[in-house]
């Protein structure tokens, strides 16, 4: 089956393409990007008129909680990948804090089988770095990699012991598995539920100081330098963390980093009124942190934008602030938020944004995609960048509605998403 | 127009003044031999307490009873909380029993806020975590005003565990809205982060903090602070931050001393102060009943509904 996207504004930073062209897809792969696709139109193919639309390599999300197995009332592979493709993502990397956790090859295989059955977006499992996500022992990473895990992580259960992390990095390093870390010194965040600062003081809530994230970012970067293991810092939220990562990169540490749209679009003041939909970990910080995050994105210190899509049921969020779980959904708002906050404001080019949301994520974990080079998988997103729309969580494909962006007016809407040559999302 | 009383930070100065004036006029009822007025007859007030309390609960219940309202008290230890029911489900069930007003205390900051958003009846915050305790601050302000004749221009030094104190926060907002100056005096480990961003002067030295003050308010120190490693010992705390007669020599001569109770004598407040002529601690308790009468009166619309 052949598909031709005609007269699209093609933006593919991996090839330096940023112009109007036709994209020809055949047998699930990109066949050609040409000025005139007429010779490729062999009759039986679908031709999609893309006038006024932007076509990019499909977005890749490095940080998603699909919640399956174990928490299917929050999200599952079907709903999570449906949300992904509605947001322009063609691939998601899913985190291991499930029940059972992704710490055994059988669980990884089961998850991949489910993803194949569902057949919406590509799913790349990230395995636990330690058994049961507890600090006791390393997982069988070689077997996990064989089963399909693309990296290992301590997300949601940050390793407090530098020794355990060091050994985990050495072991993962020999297998070529990147280590993804959630940076948080738990001794500084006991019972805490939001950023520590003036807002937490006014609200009478225990705060997580920025330094709790920064000390672990520094420690983990130093361990990466020491072990030579590929380290990826998850959800960077503070100005200090950006500075430390910049320092580590200057010294040649094999470190990459991601942030999420909420860390540049919101400050901790969004928690006022005890809004549990503004509660996540790491927490929303201050305006100075938001500014530093954008600066880090622009100068390359922060390589990627991920979502940390963390669905929770309504009744779980309708609690006392400190008791509500951490996390917000993000798959269906990430692109528009980033486009509105970064590109529409003139701070970032469109191609730089696609770089952060597609090309770099593919590079960081060595995944297929992130490019429209001939022969690459036909993982494609099509956006209407002129369209303004209002965030209505009731319209989400995700099972959960926990977003702090309800009612926001955003610009830029995914209108069509293709995975491996198959249209998996089409607006309307 | 008051619909709930959750936080003085969110209360208009005009409403604060109205509550103080109303409470002042209700003080007279408390002096009568027969302490009963029909104002809130037929109204159902429920007190829902998820934390131990003697003073505040009795104070609210007496206030309601003097106004002829019917009161029911629910303690968390005996409620369905033990069965895992959520806070919102608990209060929605109480509301379904056609109650008219809910007074609640809860260990989590923001709990009263959450409940007030969910219920269509007046909710009174009787203390939520480390956030606010508005009726305590109102009764403190009423007591200060009775002694000083005003609040504007006064200097009030609040001494002790500021970081964990809902009393300190409510007093800060209430007093500054009424034109008083507030000082926080505490060891560094008991000051909240970015406290300088609040409209307050901050001191770690007690002597400097009380100098020239019109009012000194000592806060209760919880034993738990030692356990969490925030303070070395009660002894050092008492020596450096305990309010005693000696340190009060630095205040204005007519300075009064307050405490929200219950007191740790010999820790945050010395006997020679607690039982002295400067102490207005028991007057605070009496004023507490008058303030809560005023709050219920204005939230429940008084006799207009009869």
Describe the structure.
The complex is a heterodimer of chains A (428) and B (306). By secondary structure, chain A is an alpha/beta fold. Chain A has two domains: 2-55 and 377-426, Urease, subunit C, domain 1, CATH 2.30.40.10; 59-365, TIM Barrel, CATH 3.20.20. Chain A contains twelve helices and 18 strands. In chain A, the strands form three sheets. In chain A, strands 1, 2, 3, 4, 5, 16, 17 and 18 form an eight-stranded mixed β-sheet that branches. In chain A, strands 6-7-8-9-10-13-14-15 form an eight-stranded parallel β-sheet. In chain A, helix 2 (105-118) packs parallel to helix 3 and helix 7 (239-250) runs parallel beside helix 9. Chain A is globular. The two termini of chain A are 23 Å apart. The mean pLDDT of chain A is 97. The model of chain B has no long low-confidence stretch (mean pLDDT 94). Chain B is an alpha/beta fold. The two termini of chain B are 20 Å apart. Chain B is globular and about 55 Å long. Chain B is built from twelve helices and nine strands. Chain B has helices at 13-31, 55-66, 87-96, 111-118, 134-148, 166-177, 206-210, 224-227, 234-241, 245-248, 271-274, 281-299, and strands spanning 44-49, 70-75, 101-106, 123-128, 155-159, 181-185, 201-203, 215-218, 256-258. In chain B, helix 4 (111-118) links the parallel strand 3 and strand 4 (123-128). The longest helix of chain B has 19 residues, at 13-31. The chains are: A alpha/beta (428), B alpha/beta (306). Chain A binds chain B through residues 196-198, 200-207, 209, 273-274, 315, 318-323, and chain B through 9, 86-88, 106, 108-111, 113-114, 128-132, 166, 169, 192-195, 197-198.
